[in-house]
Design a protein that fits this description.
318 residues; alpha+beta; 9-stranded mixed sheet; 4-stranded antiparallel sheet; elongated
Length: 318
Amino acid sequence: MERLQKILAQAGVASRRGAEELITDGKVTVNGKVVTELGTKVDPLKDKITVDGRKITKQEPKTYILLNKPAGYVSTVKDPHGRPKVTDLLKGIKERVYPVGRLDAETEGLLLLTNDGDLAFGLTHPKHGVEKTYLAHVVGIPDGKKLRILRDGVRLEDGVTSPAQVRRLTVIDGNALLEIKIHEGKNRQVRRMCETLGHPVMKLQRTEVGGLTLQGVPLGTYRRLTDEEIASLEKKLPKLKRPTTAWGVTQITETSENVSTQAQARPRPTNKDQAPRQGKKPGGEPYTPKPRNTDKEQAPWRGKKSGEGQFTSKPRTT
């Protein structure tokens, strides 16, 4: 049994977060019943799953695209306002792919698209710290103090940004060109960081993601990732779990061989028979931990120092 959103992501229907939206929007049915609760577990080998009335039967071949996105295109597969979409540029790609993260419409540069939901989720999750590099042409020339703020963290409406690598590359007509490397993906983060310091971005381009660059990919074109590049991205996601079947479900048959090879859990000792933890001193002599202080021996809590040299706690105000 697997979570429904995970199965949809592994089947290439959408990213993990996109699959969650499909479920909460009531677009997913299991055995003819609409499922809106996240975390619902199903068996793809037995249950009939549909999305927008389309039966999910098997996983499409994994597809990985690197696109050099022009300005004026939105990073989505559907747009209610009818604006140009990044998927409009993928002529010849038959598989359904979706953007890994987003670039705002005005930003150019490297955008990955895939139907590998697990990889997309891993690359966009901040805990993995996948590095992204931007070139920002800003108004004016930030001084050393402002560059340090960019590096140390800028306070935005949704929190302080993580430390970044920032350097000034050159000055063009009185306006600086900055290279900014970040490991998180807040909404319009680079633009907001620069604007907060009084240097709005005039032009923004993403040049690198996880070691992948735009080399050999002209603006508005794309290429498929090589097997080596895919493997390199997966190495950056140590907790990425690959499915053992097309649905990400392993069929296990209870046999004597399976049972015999299962690891046996060691019984945990009770408090009575549990031996004290022991180790060795630097000289090789064994030692045992010192017993904790009793209430009588416990040192008093220390707070701010008073005028008499003693540490006392500050009284609360009622």
